[in-house]
Amino acid sequence: MERGATVFVGTHLSRTFGQVAAVRDVSCRITATDRIAVTGASGSGKSTLLQLIAGIDDPSGGRAAWPALDGHPRRRPGRIGIVFQSPALLPTLDVHENVALSVLLAGQSAGQARRAASEALRLLHLDDLADRLPHELSGGQAQRVAVARAVATNPDLVVADEPTAALDSATAAHLLDVLLSTVDRLGAALVLATHDSTVAGRMDIRWPMADGTIPTAKASS
Amino acid sequence: MMIWLTGLLRRRTGRILGTAAGIAAAVALLATVGSFLSTARASMTARAVAPVQVDWQVHLNAGADPRAVLATTRAEPGVAVALPVGYAKVPALSTQDGTTVSTTGAAVVVGLPPDYRTVFPGQIRDLGGTGNGVLLAQQTAANLRARPGSVVTVTRPGLPAAQVTVDGIVDLPHADTMLALDPAATAPPDNVLLLPATTFTTLFDPLRADRPDLLADQIHVRTDRRLPADPGTAYTVSTGAAHHLDATLAGAGQSTDNLAAALDAARSDAAYATALFLFLASPGAALAGLLTATVVAAAADRRRKEQALLRARGATARQLLSIAAVEATVSGIIGAALGAAAAAALGSLVFGDSGTAAWSAAAAAAGLVIAAGTVLLPAGRSLRTQTVAAGRTGAARPRLPLVLRLGVDGIALVGAFLVLRATTATGYQLVVAPEGAPRIAVDHWAFTGPALLWIGAALLTWRLVEAGLRFGRRPLTTLLRPVAGPLAGTVAATLQRRRRPIATAATLIACAIAFAVSTAAFTATYQQQAEVDARLTNGADVTVTATPGDLTGGLADAIHATPGVRHVETIQHRFAYVGADLQDLYAVRPATITGGAHLADAWFTGGTAETLMHRLEQQPDGILVSAETVTDFQLQPGDQLILRITDPRTGNPTPVTFHFLGVVNEFPTAPTDSFLVANQHYIAGKVGDGPSTHLIDAGGHDPATVAAALRAAIGPGPAITDITASRTVIGSSLTAVDLDGLTRIELGFALLLAVASAGLVLALGLTERRRTFTITTALGARVRHLAGFVAGEALVITVPALVIGAGTGVGLAQVLIVILKGTFDPPPDRMALPWTYLIVLGAAMVAAVAVTVTGVLAQTRKPRLALLRDV
């Protein structure tokens, strides 16, 4: 992807659940190599905004577009890597299979998926854990596997929803190092939700959210 | 506790209702079949006693005072009516028609009080003339060529012969009991004359002083019939009451208990009904319990995590068990109430009886036990064996269950084989009811065989599916490629690691299919044999048995002319001596016999029905004999066999030479033991014609209607029976008891359990993995990808379950047929498979799986993103 290319554009985005407005009138733009921290208190709408950006949820109002992806992420699986708050690994697949699954879902062959998964695990120094099942991993290991899964498809954008929330500070710092170095290597953009100021401090851009909106300014890179 | 209960009812309604539904199925099945059992037993008792006219016959001993015995009998508790009946044995009866005198052999003259026919209306059936006065039994009338108005001369030893004028010709349907002159009598007399009591007294009182040995007195008793519903208990009560009368009479008389004799046969049928209940209903109830356990187990992960959270927050084991107990109680009560209500509704619908409170209560109690066993026990086990951390993380790598590691499946199957072999050895009978013995014996060992077979087959299914998934990942990947595409390997890996719940689900579905198939095959075979039995008993759609005197062809012409008659086949029934052994001889027309009567190949040995009839046609002096006769007389094919057959023209036994042609085991209207089948034309040429039985093919018309038309056309003389009536007249046996109702309920439940297990178990398993599907969707999976997971799991569960379940079902049905052979007469030569039901079962299961898969896929189309935050 070209440096400076627009990965995502949100225009007056809103998302409501019944009477509750989780995201209200948010306009934002993400370009390649952006490092964005979405900050805010619990319930401020960070996760919902990230789901809209990742394309796994649809806005109730406004418009979401992914110019660099040539279409909606649901039609271009693998172009956006997602790291959830919990590792969200499939319990019945081992580490290697979990990582390979995202590559398979991106439309690659079984052989390509195997190779990509092995490469991603090697990058994150997880080769030794390849045969383990999720319940045999520590919290930090599982979250690193989740990162490996997110980057195994060489995405243009990585969306991470509080990936360090459940980790101790040392493990969280290590995971963040891994995540940043990986997206740097891929040349991908990174949008990360956090309420940890230390984590946010390592990002280039901050989008502070409150009551479902970004009050300071229209978010933009 | 209340907070938890409220939360459970509001947020986990599906879990509670799912558990309750499984319990309701078990309760409904047990209560319905139990109620059927009660109804069936009562029906057996009612059917058994209904044809009995004279409940007790009190035989007066020599020297007893008839008036005193009558008074004592009438005063006995439970006696409704008691009437005196006199008997006289005379050397002969005769008539004179012009110069022709017809004389019988020894005869019995019976003196009946005026109200006898009112009290015992079924004892005497009018065939001609008036129903009062001097009545002559049908066969005696034929022997004497007598009709109403004829004068019969009664020979009286030591006195001049007396003459009476015949007022009517009658049939005596219960001659065996009515004419038994002493309790040990085995056969009724051939010649019978019935007189009003006053005439009898006039004729035979003069004999009392000189020849008391020729006279007998009886008291015929009608009881109030306040009998318990169960035939066994009713038998005991009736026997006890009769014994009480004997004791009260203190030697003046001895009773024959006809009521108990009728109940004697019914009580073994009742024992078979109980056995049927145990064999057919208990696996269904166990299956419903297993289904409930599976429903509960489907939520085990979530339950374990809830429990772990509560433990982490300080809940004690006692509190956690209390919570589980509350859930079990709520589920159990809801399930028991639903099940009891369903059973009452079904009972009313099918049996016209909403069932007994006792059975409903027992079934409800069983439902509560199932609830405790499926909810409370796993919770307790989990508390004992799991740590909080393990509870929060989820399932470990699946291990082979202990029962399989110990090889219980193999042990159970070998045990089943040995028990079946031992219990089905020569002469084996599940129910032994010695005639007259107060108690019947049921061989409970026989239940061990099917029980072990069920256990062994279920565990073997588990082992096979488990092993297939554990070791067959590569072939499984190949097999799944058509449905899962490039994800086939991933789906196979998922299935391999989920092999324990998958094997459990497949086992449950296989058991449900086995239950449905075995029940269907058994009941179909049962009905097939009941039909064969009715056909064997009646011989054809409609059977007309001519009076002994009717040797003309006029009757056959009249039958032919009756509407609804397509074909008439005449066979003649004779008696013949084989050595000193008197056997029934059926004289047939081999070329046309199959036009009126159905002959099954299984009834013959050494050839099909067609080939043996063809051989008989080709060889006029050929004869088919029973296997017993072949053994007894060491016969070889082609051996000469000389029979002595009575010639009706001379009354003398005439030797007739035959040649042994083949073996016949069953034949229409023939008895079950020894009999013979030969050419009608050949026999008629040697000893003349015999009494005819006309076997009528109704050509698809209702046999009962054709029988009614025949009665109208040919009058009351010949006996006319139709197969519809035969089906219900096969005694008080199980076929006569509305087994159709049980069959419908059993098959309905079997279908319901099979469909529920396929749909519910699959749906629950997949629903519990909503988070997995949500994650997969969030990672980019499309419907076709998820379809690979869902359909792959559905196929891996249902295909082996269908194959193994169907095989096991057929095997179990075969075992049931062997064990319950006492309910079959004749034994089946092969199992009947009700293909319509089996096709419906298969289609319903496929539909249930398709609906489940579609439903689960529809759910995943809209992923619940909140699930992504679950730990």
TrEMBL record, chain A:
A Pfam family that the UniProt record links to this protein: ABC_tran
Signal sequence interval, chain numbering: none
Keyword field: ATP-binding, Nucleotide-binding
GO CC annotation: plasma membrane
Residues of the ABC transporter domain: 8-221
PANTHER family, A to Z: ABC TRANSPORTER RELATED, IMPORT ATP-BINDING PROTEIN
UniProt keyword Nucleotide-binding, yes or no: yes
InterPro entries listed in its UniProt record: AAA+_ATPase, ABC_transporter-like_ATP-bd, ABC_transporter-like_CS, ABC_transpr_LolD-like, P-loop_NTPase
GO molecular function ontology, one term from the record: ATP hydrolysis activity
Name of protein: Nitrate ABC transporter ATP-binding protein
